[in-house]
Design a protein that fits this description.
Blueprint lengths: L1 E10 L2 E11 L4 E5 L6 H9 L6 E6 L2 E2 L5 H5 L2 E4 L10 H7 L6 H10 L16 H13 L5 E5 L7 H12 L5 E5 L3 H6 L2 E4 L5
Parallel strand pairs: 3-8, 3-9, 6-7, 7-8
Antiparallel strand pairs: 1-2, 1-4, 4-5
Keywords: ATP-binding, Nucleotide-binding, Transport
GO cellular component, one term: membrane
GO molecular function, one term: ATP binding
Length: 201
């Protein structure tokens, strides 16, 4: 389970959110929604310990997030950021960097489910569209077989057909907890739980 208990996040520019509390059961599919600037991406970074809240507590997989537990917590998580900037040039190199090169067949199967040809695995990222690159990276990250999957704006570069394919893949991850952030109404509506940021009262 993942839980936020009265978490407040502040930057030098001001308060992003105050007293945010929610819980996510293991295996749930959850969408973080809200307007730009309400802290959707920050929630995903807090879960990984990359952003420290001003106050409140966070638990992930039965562990209270802190200096002594953050390494173990991160080992449970596969994360795909919205802006993908990688020190590798294609999917093949990415699997080697993440030590999952033995799972090439799994990655190619996932790519097919996401509407990509197998040859995209070795095509240079700089020759792909944003949506193609995004789906290759998602396929590689899912092959890590982590218990928790965090997707930051996974629909941002996808057309409607690609979004439907990704929804089908995510829905099929029966034993995985998937938390995504998105502006996309249909994506949010398809999730089992919604956490809305920036809502007063």
């Amino acid at each position: 389970m993942i839980s936020f208990d009265n978490v407040t996040l502040k930057y030098s520019t001001g308060t992003i959110f105050e007293n945010l509390s929610f819980s996510v059961q293991a295996g749930s599919k959850v969408c973080i929604t809200g307007h730009s600037g309400t802290g959707k991406s920050s929630v995903l970074k807090i879960i990984q310990g990359y952003v420290k809240p001003h106050s409140g507590s966070v638990q992930v997989g039965g562990m209270k997030l802190g200096r002594d537990t953050v390494k173990d917590i991160r080992s449970q998580i596969a994360y795909v950021p919205q802006n993908i900037n990688l020190p590798v040039s294609n999917g093949d190199e990415l699997t080697r960097m993440l030590n999952v090169s033995s799972k090439r067949r799994d990655v190619e199967l996932l790519m097919g489910q996401l509407g990509l040809e197998k040859e995209m695995f070795v095509r240079p990222f700089d020759e792909m569209s944003g949506g193609q690159k995004q789906r290759v990276v998602i396929a590689v990250c899912l092959s890590l077989d982590r218990d928790i999957v965090l997707l930051d704006e996974p629909t941002s570069s996808l057309d409607d057909d690609a979004i439907l394919k990704l929804l089908k893949v995510v829905s099929g991850l029966k034993d995985k907890t998937v938390i995504s952030s998105s502006h996309h109404h249909e994506w949010g509506a398809a999730m089992e739980q919604e956490v809305r940021l920036g809502v007063q009262g």
